[in-house]
Amino acid sequence: MKLREYLHFVSNAQSLEELWPVHAEQMAGFGFDRLIYGYTQFRTKTSLGDPDDFIILSNHCAEYLDGFLHKGLYFHAPMLHWALENEGAASWRVLAEKLNTGTLTPEEIKVMEFNLRMKVTAGYTISFKSVSARSKGAISLAARAGMYQDQVDAVWAEHGEDILLMNNVAHMKILSLPYNPPNRGLTKRQREALEWVGDGKTMQDIALLMGLTTATVEKHLRLAREALAVETTAQAVLKASLHNQMFVLEG
């Protein structure tokens, strides 16, 4: 898919399920056949937020995702640390430089050893521009097994501007699409109740508009809070809004 064709596709994509496989295929055409995209809007000075609230998209194998994400290795990944402090693109060549100068922590070395076992040894990381202090997005582009960093850098020298453009556009599109975190999706009724709260309606108003009793409305809101792992309905409205789970066009 040529660049213009790809940009037209991304601008018209209606879901993450539609967008992500095509983006992964496009990156594979440049030799980056394993990707991890991550985004959080709940970052603090000491945490990236609850991992269950991250937007995570990847085509890595289950074994890699289990070790890197589910067992928490990502938190010590050197390129993640770079992404949190920088914007733009960086060659993984910086890892070899850090290793040679002895500036990697023991935890970071464990991540590199894990990546070596999984043949994730060459690539680039893109850190996207943040619009708030609490948000951060980045994508790891791992080159196919057997490629050396010199080869990857040569690909980037020729196509890097286009690759960066495609990932930036894909990132902006992802932020506009609904995302349902695992085990934190809302039912249609829960979403509808939150939408009316967001519109400033009272509990009595919502019950009348939904054709329910106030007790049933309160139940939907309680279940929405539980699904989103928050304590208050205001927090539920905010989190659902941040994940584009409210006012969703059906079908």
Describe this structure in words.
The structure is a single chain. Helices cover 52% and strands 12% of the residues. It is of the alpha+beta class. The protein has two domains: 3-174, Beta-Lactamase; 188-242, Winged helix-like DNA-binding domain superfamily/Winged helix DNA-binding domain (Arc Repressor Mutant, subunit A, Orthogonal Bundle). A five-stranded antiparallel β-sheet has the order 2-1-5-4-3, sandwiched between helices. A hairpin with an 8-residue loop joins strand 4 and strand 5 (136-143). The longest helix has 26 residues, at 149-174. The protein is elongated, with a radius of gyration of 21 Å. The mean pLDDT is 91.
Q: For the largest beta sheet, what order do the strands appear in spatially?
A: 2-1-5-4-3
Write down the domain tally: 2
- Calculate the terminal CA-CA distance, rounded to whole Å: 26 Å
CATH topology of the largest domain: Beta-Lactamase
The unreliable regions are none
Order of helices and strands: HHEEHHEHHEEHHHHH
Largest sheet: 5 strands, antiparallel
Class derived from helix and strand content: alpha+beta
What is the average of the pLDDT values? 91
CATH class of the largest domain: Alpha Beta
